[in-house]
Specification:
6 helices, alpha/beta, Hypothetical Protein Ychn, Chain: A, 9 strands, Translation Initiation Factor IF3, four-stranded mixed β-sheet, 2 domains
Length: 195
């Protein structure tokens, strides 16, 4: 079975969502090719394939023209879904609380530092919107986040947010994620902490 879906021009997380639906529709082993127009979509599709233990290969055929081919094993998709994480910290701003911005930045830095000393660490920290500044070059919390990652905390940042703020090349800790993965993680988490 072979299938090709065109996801050119689609914003995150639509390429991943459409690819997941297409993979779930396979009734026999086969090949799914997803056409996309940006490297973030390519990386997100490769992560989706890896999460199901499917092989994936990306080929660039021109400027902003990519084909991601995933070797789908029918019947394995649902079984390979990962179990949800325990505690997840979702940080949607580079400040904590509302009010004075300087105070908010000080509080966020203190919160992240306090996480490094918490008795029980979260399993994952997700950064989105202006929170995407925190795992990037120039952040006052970079060292603390690197220590959390070394301690086993998964650090992810929204790719759309990194692109929007021009931070993609400045990410210094963690990996790029997408809204589909963020939603899956938050809805599967045992608890979500939003400072």
């Amino acid at each position: 079975m072979k299938n090709t879906i065109d996801c050119n021009g689609m914003a995150c997380p639509l390429p991943v969502v459409n690819a997941k639906k297409a993979m779930d529709a396979f009734t026999e082993d086969g090949e799914l090719t997803v056409l996309v127009d940006n490297t973030t979509a390519v990386e997100n599709l490769k992560k989706l394939a890896a999460s199901r233990q499917f092989a994936a290969e990306a080929v660039q055929s021109g400027e902003n023209r990519y084909a991601v081919t995933i070797q789908v094993q029918a019947g394995c998709a649902a079984a390979a879904e990962p179990e949800g994480p325990g505690a997840v910290v979702a940080i949607g701003s580079n400040t904590m609380g509302s009010g004075d911005e300087a105070l908010g930045k000080t509080l966020m830095k203190a919160f992240i530092f306090a996480l490094t000393n918490a008795q029980k660490l979260p399993e994952q920290i997700i950064f989105y919107n202006s929170g995407a500044f925190l795992p990037c070059e120039g952040s006052d919390s970079l060292e603390d986040l690197q220590n959390l990652e070394k301690a086993g905390v998964k650090i992810t940042a929204c790719g759309t947010c990194l692109n929007y703020y021009g931070l993609t090349e400045k990410l210094r800790v963690g990996t790029v994620s997408n809204m589909y993965d963020i939603v899956e993680t938050l809805t599967a988490a045992q608890s979500v902490i939003r400072p």
